[in-house]
Amino acid sequence: MAPSFYFRPATIFASKPSSSYTLLFLAILFIIGLYTLHHHHDTAGTPGNALHFGDLFLSAASNYTISSYLRRLTRHPHVAGTEAAVQTAMYVENHFRDLGMDTFVKHYNALLSYPAHASLSAHFSNGTVKAAALAEQGSAGNDVIPPYHAYSPSGSAYGKAVFVNYGMEEDYGALAAQGVSVAGCVVVARRGVAPRNAVVEKAAENGAAAVLMYSETEGFGDGVERGTVMAGLGDPLSPGWAGVDGGEILGLNDKEVVRRFPKIPSMPVSADTAEAILSTLEGPRAPSEWKARALRVGPGPTMLNFSYQGVKKLATLRNVFAMIRGSEEPDRFVLLGNHRDAWTYGAVDPNSGTAALLDIARRYALLMRSGWNPRRSIVLCSWDAEEFGMIGSTEWVEQNLLNLGSKAVAYLNVDCAVQGPGFFAGATPQLDDLLVEVTKKVKDPDSDDMTLYKKWTTTSNGINIQRLSGVDSDFAPFLQHAGVPSIDLYYGRDFPVYHTAFDDFSWMIKYGDPLFQRHVAVTGVWGLLALRLADDAVLPFNYLSYAAELQEYANILSTLLGGNVFLRPILAAIQELRDAAKKAEDEAMKMRVLETAGNLMLKQRALNDRLMFAERGFLDAEGLQGRQWFKHLVYGPPRHHESKLVFFPGLVDAVSQFRRTNKNEGQAAMQHEIWRVARAIQRAAYTLRGEFA
Ligand SMILES: [Zn+2]
Fold it and tell me: Is 387 a catalytic residue?
């Protein structure tokens, strides 16, 4: 539409050369008025606007800048709470400031945990004793933190070695079936699906004295995977609220604090160390379905002597933010987040994502100089202490719960942006369509003339979007505590140097992304998603996908549970959501067509609010039973990790419980959870419909 306005003045001027100056002046004023009016709408986010700046954003891509940011970020290891971490925070802060962005840093106090001393020796049946190498070769003496489990209690153990596979309930069941008890033993477990803290907890329940964990680090046999063993998210001393200066903190012996930490000590070891131990075990054969390194599970005869001393320390965390204020709706926020702290150098985890975030900042600044001003506000968030348990992001979410609940449109997370080849995405389902659309605009980094969308769909047999029930990155507090629609993006998975001293810049240029084109692709998707969410006059949310996804969950449950429960409440609620989603989508389509009309602002805003708030309907004030911090009844971690179900965590917990007990009360508990989920879906439907029930 723009050209017609530009051409008209020339016509007027040419056809009336002798008109009075007044007329000409008025005409020019009129034209300026029209232009301003139009221009004003243009920046308010017409599709043309989003398209234009989207193209500009993509054309400003640079693998050079991203790689230079990554090199700078990974010069030193920067574990949260250390001086190097402060330097890294300042680098990010200065980057935002230098771009002229509104930059601020929020400090939080949190209890972190560091290793002081550790030792491990194996006493073999032939009488030889061998001390295990506890760190990666060559990492000792430099400033990489020794391998440890954050928040492991200090302690020592001397006991028989026993192999427990992934250390899940079913593994202990298989061992018990062979007459193997792990009581008093030092358990050796491999890392699998269950979080570390769950593995330690399960071992303690079974009477183990200590736990050693290893992960398969193909080609990097002496790599050791550091990690946290704290249960739950956020600072343990300020559970559910922010750890701010002068704020309430619990004592170290408070039972709310104590229950976050394991009862027995644990430590990570390398695959090589594990192999050296496991190859000497006797006793029953490892079940063939375990497909494990160990041929036999023990216990013994090899004895392990293990000791660990750790220190817990209050540290200052720094979350760094850059804000681009929205021009039309400054009180609506699109958040892009990545954590900055790393166990070691963090070339993959997490600074491939940080480099992407910094490049998005650079490119957004460029767009602003070209006249772009987003309709809604955009916030770039750089979190601290994610590795210890999503602490930086969780404290911020807890402090801003109501502001986020009433104003956050979406949270877009990138942790390990690039671990290798292959695009992966997780999303809450109302964002599925947007995600797909955006990947059609971005070039696939690993082929010459294919879009990312094409490659993604051909390699994964159709669109494969994961769901965000895990607590493995900073989307967890946003979605599972605050109910903010979320996306998580990454390239590659299961990279062998995860949390080891080898996760450095040289690994990235040798294996992860030699040309940084995968970085460019993630940055493209991430930045475009935010542009659309910030600029589209009508939010690009489609709840029909949500209803379809929920229907799938209901179908799975119905197959699984048969006649044991009455699923109709959930099915009826899904139907309500589907109807509301259909209505909202029809309205949205109409408004998208009319969106340049100019007098629709309030109507758009009203519809957008319904789209934005519907996700909050899935939150429940009571939260998950025994884990009240988790408020979302559709997405959250199940308590029993052997469950492969990644939805309705409270209901899935009740199902697991029912299967163990098979009692009437188990059935009643399950039915109650079904009603809770049904009511949550209903709340979302009412919100989306925008009318009182
Ligand atoms: Zn990470």
Answer: no
